[in-house]
Each structure stands twice: as C-alpha cells, then as structure tokens.
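Example complex used in Figure S2.
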Amino acid sequence: MNPFSLKDKTILITGASSGIGRSCSVECSRSGADLILVARNEEELQKTVSLLAPGSKAEIIIADITNAENLEELIAEKVSVLGKISGFIHCAGIEKTLPLKKHTPQLYTDIFAVNVISGFEIAKILSLKKYKNETSSFVFISSVAGMVGEIGKAAYSASKGAVISGARSLAMELSRSGVRVNSISPAMVNTPILEKMFENIGEAAAEEILKKHPLGIGQPEDVANACIFLLSDASKWITGSNLVVDGGYSAH
Amino acid sequence: MKTSVFLEKLQEELEEDQTLTLDTNLKALESYDSISLLSVIAFVDENFDKKIDTKHFKDVETVSDLMNVIGKENFED
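Predicted assembly (329 residues):
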C-alpha cells in the first residue's frame, strides 16, 4: 500500500473554512481520508465540503473552538459516525501585524486563544483512548514567524513559537500513546490572511516580503501536502519535529 | 477634533521632536519608516473610529493630506 495514503484514516481539521485549512481538507480527502471539519463560518465550511473528493465522508462541527464547552461531546458524536481519529491538523489561526506600542494584553490573549490554546485543548481530547486509533498523528500549523523575527508581529510570532515548542512537549508526552506530534512552519502562503495582511501593511512593505521568498509565495496545497506526509504512515518515525515549508524564506 | 490637538497627538504618536504643522511632510520626518504607517493607521482607528486602507496612504505626503484621508468633517479649527 502507498505509505503516503490516508485511506481508512479519519482526520480532524480546524480552520477548515478557508486558506490552509480548506486546502488541507481537500487534499486529505483526495488522499483517501474521512474528515471531521471544524470552523465557525458554516457557509464557508460548506463550500469546503463541496470541494472534497467525491466519495469521501465528511462531518462538520460549527463551533468557536476558543469558547466551546461542549467540544468534546461534539467530537464524540462525530467519532461515533466516522470511527476513531487517526490524525489532527490545527489550522485555525489569526494574524495581526501591529507595532509593539499598539499591542495590548487583549491582543496577546486573543491570538494565543486561537493559535495555541484551542489547538492543544483539542489535542488533549483527541489523545484520549476512546477517541483515537491505535496510532495517530497531530500536526500544528505554526509559521516561520515562530522561528525568525518579523516587524509588527510580537504577539503573532510569540504564539507561533509557542506552537512549535508546545508541540515538541506533546510529542514527548504522547509517544507512549502512539501519537506523533509535529508542527509545520510555512512562510507567506496565498490565503485570505495574507491578502488582509498585505492590505494592512501597504504595497511597499508587501513587496519587501515577497522579495524574501526565493521560490516566491507558497500555495495552500504546498502546506497541505506537507501535512499529508506528516499524517501518513510514511512519516511514522518522525515526531517532535518542525517541518519548514517556506520557499527558502528562512534559508538566509 | 481640534486641529491643534490632532497635531499634538500625531506628533506624540510618531515620537517626533519637531512640532508638526499642516504642511509638514510626514514621509520626510526623521522618525518615519515602514512601521510608522501601521502606527498611524492604528492611531486613526483609535481616535476617529475609522479604518483606513493603506492604499489611501500612497499619495499622503503632508499632515494636511492625512487629514483629508481621515475626512475634513472630523476636524475643527
């Protein structure tokens, strides 16, 4: 069997209503996975569902993952339909480019709530025996901003650095349960978040950022394919790693 | 907002030593750089509850230009 296949695996994906999350959903379905897709925006999430490979099974959860008390129940319900979970991708994330002097405690709190805490809380649920398959793989979408400095990104890069280091500790803790945990650090990817950021920072600054990518801006499927690798059995000896998918951004 | 108050606040925002006037060229200020643009946008949002698109900043040179982008109706002498 193709070691890169996701056949017979049920994968839960947060942030599935747009950008990298949507692309991960589509590419995972093409690789044979069944999906539990989580997002706040039902309309956009349904659009993702309409893009999935024909024949793939998908269940959706409409929830604000930063503030959902019954998330475990909702997940349990979907597991009873699709079967136990073999993989998780935490794509939900928010980005804010703002000078340090405009950062507020609320901004740090809001960004960490989505980018870090909700992901680890869902990992907590999915690491329970009753919801997980014998082996499972968790993938957290971090960012190169979690590794290298960028202007105006104090809160964002702190949150993405937290994702990388937290994922490493999860890898240590969950290896005994057969769960591998890795993160992926993309640079600029052509998504709605990027468009919004470019609008915010202006053309000149956007141009500067583009220049720093030897292979240009990435496409969402470039990240999705890396996720598939980390979710599949092809990466069964890889845990606690941070896979840099950045078109060469951090190479210099 | 009174124009004089706006000038003072903007000067403080940019941490500029020089007193600003309507004719001051923002982009020529010593303190002005790429991050200043983000500061000014956040400053306008805070003080005028108005989100300015960076595209509108392309042609902003002077303080007076900035006030035009914010909207003259928001200022009094």
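DSSP finds three helices and no strands in chain B. Chain B touches chain A at residues 34-35, 37-39, 41-42, 53-55, 57-58 (CB under 8 Å).
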